[in-house]
Amino acid sequence: MKNKNILGLLCCVIIFLAGFFFHGNIALYFNLSGALVVLGGTFGATLVTYRLERLKIVYKVLLSSYKTKTKTPEDIVEILVDLSVKSKFQGILSLQEDEEETSLLFLRRALGLLVDGYQGSVIRDILNTEMYFFKLRREDCERVIRTMGELFPSFGLVGSVVGLISMLAGVGDSKVILATVPIALTSTLYGVILANFFCVPFAGNLRERTDRELLLQKIILEGVIAIESEMDPRSLERKLQSFITPSSRNVQLVSLKRIQERFNIKTGS
Asked: What does the pLDDT look like over 76-100, one tens digit per residue?
């Protein structure tokens, strides 16, 4: 995560926790029984739904999404234009030496297809298939996280029912009521917080990162095919910059006067 994101997150967490402190005794919000019901029930149901290997993959993907920094579209465009220039002067096989230097596995694989002499149509088909199943795998991971987000509030409700049953069993005994009411209330609190402060944001982050990586892969796909077809580097740069937001493009616009001269546009009197 970027430093600004971390700083903003810390500020929001402090504000969030401040709401609990203002009500006095913070110990009232901690209840082991409620936490065990919510956590044990949710993770147990998740293990029934998904294989343990799948959960390990989700953990690795989540960890990577916060620790690994992806390249920007501007970086990818610059790399591909440089490779295009290089292939013009040294030949397509000169790209072999760059295959292991790029940080993105997808780019390395695309360059591998390029230097192995595959036709553009074949390269497009292979890389499109790779992108399709990459998206499916990420959607599977996101589905696991969203399932947990749905289970947490449900088991929070289960914890509340457990607390209410214990409370009704001890009607007339104030000690039993005081001991069981926190279980009923904190279980619901834990379920809602874990779902909306962790699972939903994690799933949203994974979706956002997946979309960003798919954009990079699309740029790489079009760039590599253009290099294979020996497109002029300047034309390649203009084409790939279409994927970038206008504010990030380093393009000098053609003056209105040149447009007017090119299309014989006459100004009104």
From this structure: 888 888 888 877 777 766 666 655 5
